[in-house]
Write a structure and sequence with these properties.
The chain has 16 helices and 21 strands. By secondary structure, the chain is of the alpha/beta class. Helix 11 runs antiparallel to helix 12 and helix 11 (about 295-320) packs across helix 16. It is globular and about 65 Å long. The structure holds zinc ion. Zinc ion binds near residues 14, 15, 207 and 261.
């Protein structure tokens, strides 16, 4: 293999969508993207279900649908328990796309989600979200971490997303710091690994930025209540300059893929699905007695509160909290402690169905099925009937307005049953802007979103650029991206890949052929230690995933 062949760049924009990028191009702050697009194939990229970064990036890394790689979210149920655990890179069936590309010259992977702990590749890797802490095994080779740590701007306040509109400037400070850190690491790594042939980088923070500033990004100049628009434009200007540097690295005849894991849209409200299920008799809660016997639930809930207090204390200075306001915030913690973000309050012995994850656009529900769930009560014989009852009941829901309830087999390919942990029902609402959670003991069933102004949508974006690319506009599936990348680099596509090379945009690629016949690999899943788990949960919580 000749290392003199053109370089390849895969530039991920987490949560990226043309709705925002077009606005930024129109505002004149993304000149490199604008120019590149004129000679590229580009369009909407349909993401996977569930619509979240963990499932989608896992699909990118493995070439498989979520039901085939088994990662549906950042958190998954611990086998045989009522506890959820943070997923990590060991959950991905290997070989991943990095492993498949190992003969194609050294590669660099920078902040691609679901790559912690970093593993041995031909090149270097810096893990992306979620990582337990910044000192741990987040690099390959391991000694790289010590070199990179001084380049990372640390925010004394930590991260917090529970801030009201007028305080959101704090989030922007943090996102700016993260982008600067990414740029510094990139400069260092491209200098150190000059022989790099393929570079993967993910601008992860666009996702978070859109969660909180979607409305400001859509505001007209002069009608931006908190004045965030100029700073947001500056952020995208900086991102575009970074993209430009990466394009220069790959240029002039390099192969370029720009892609998002999912798109975004405005949030209509938060649906507390477990409370809704309770109101319809599908879920029961235990009588609250704070029994000491409930050690597992208690310890998690205590830990969650500890993490919250720790974060609050860290954030105090930045928020300018003192005296009365601190008291008020602590009071809020006590109150929020009444609703529980874990499911330890569920009376499983009389619960037929539950929500176990956050849902965005496609909202998941599980049946408490015997043999699969730790305390399942629905027998396989009752399953279809109960699922249909629930499905029909969901279809009568008007707040939010439910327009479709899909049975698992209508969404997921459950043939091989390897990871039969797919949701049993998936709900779609009229606007697509409903986010569901799994909280219990909430006061309302459906309420406005207090902090987030936007949430994920299935429709993301892609762009392909290179000598063989036929410029134009079109659609693609996220699953086609890894297949395209392999085909473009003359690497055989494993037979179990779920996508096709995008030959309609790159005619030299042959669609529909499978070069290998291996069956899909299975993952050797490993679990975090309790300390690591705490670190990951704190991080995910600070990003609003818990
Ligand atoms: Zn994402």
């Amino acid at each position: 293999m000749s290392y003199a062949s053109p370089r390849t760049l895969i530039f991920g924009i987490d949560g990226g969508c043309w709705e925002i990028l077009d606005r930024m191009i129109a505002a004149g702050v993304m000149p490199r993207l604008k120019k590149l697009r004129e000679t590229s194939a580009w369009g909407d990229l349909e993401s996977v279900v569930p619509v979240n970064s963990a499932a989608a990036w896992s699909s990118f890394l493995t070439g498989m649908k979520p039901e085939h790689h088994g990662v549906y979210d950042f958190l998954a149920w611990m086998p045989g328990s009522n506890r959820r655990t943070a997923v990590n890179a060991s959950w991905l069936p290997r070989p991943t796309i990095f492993d498949l590309l190992k003969e194609r010259g050294p590669l660099l992977s920078l902040k691609v989600p679901l790559t912690y702990p970093a593993w041995t590749i031909n090149g270097a890797m810096v893990s992306g979200l979620p990582t337990p802490d910044d000192e741990a095994a987040f690099t390959y080779p391991g000694d790289l971490a010590a070199k990179l740590n001084p380049l990372i701007l640390k925010h004394s306040a930590g991260r917090s997303w529970e801030v009201d509109s007028e305080q959101r400037g704090m989030i922007l400070d943090q996102l700016d710091a993260a982008q600067i850190s990414l740029e510094r690491m990139t400069d260092y790594l491209l200098q150190k690994y000059q022989e790099t042939q393929t570079c993967f980088v993910v601008a992860r923070d666009v996702d978070e930025l859109q969660h909180f500033f979607w409305d400001a990004l859509f505001s007209q100049p002069g009608h931006d209540p908190f004045g965030y628009r100029p700073r947001l434009e500056k952020y995208f200007l900086r991102l575009d300059a970074y993209l430009g540097r990466m394009l220069d690295w790959a240029a002039p005849e390099g192969k370029v893929i720009i892609m998002s894991d999912h798109g975004f849209g405005p949030v209509e409200g938060i649906w507390h699905l477990n409370e809704w299920l309770r109101s319809k008799g599908f879920l029961s809660l235990r009588v609250e007695s704070k029994k000491a016997s409930d050690r597992e639930g208690l310890s998690w809930s205590l830990r969650a509160r500890f993490a919250l207090s720790r974060r609050l204390l860290k954030g105090m200075k930045n928020l300018g909290l003192s005296g009365d306001r601190l008291e008020a915030s602590l009071e809020k913690i006590k109150l929020s402690g009444l609703s529980s973000a874990d499911l330890s309050g569920v009376e499983w012995g009389s619960t037929l169905a539950y929500a176990g994850n956050v849902g965005e656009e496609y909202l998941p529900i599980y049946i408490n099925l015997q043999g699969r769930e730790p305390q399942g009560i629905v027998s396989p014989e009752q399953y279809l009937q109960i699922r249909e009852d629930l499905r029909r009941t969901l279809l009568t829901c008007t707040e939010p307005k439910v327009i479709a309830v899909h049975r698992s087999e209508e969404i997921f390919d459950l043939q091989d049953g390897r990871y039969a942990l797919a949701p049993d029902l998936v709900i779609q609402t009229a606007t697509g802007g409903v986010q569901s959670d799994f909280n219990i003991r909430t006061h309302q069933l459906f309420e406005p979103s207090r902090y987030r102004v936007a949430c994920h949508r299935r429709k993301g974006m892609f762009l392909l650029h290179g000598a063989q690319v036929q410029p134009g506009h079109g659609q693609a599936s996220l699953l086609d991206i890894p297949a395209t990348l392999l085909a473009w680099l003359d690497v055989p596509i494993p037979g179990y890949f779920d996508g096709q090379p995008l030959s309609r945009f790159i005619p030299t690629l042959v669609s529909g052929t499978r070069h290998t016949t291996e069956t899909a690999p299975a993952a050797q899943r490993e679990f975090y230690t309790e300390d690591e788990e705490d670190g990951v949960r704190e991080k995910l919580e600070s990003l609003g995933y818990l």
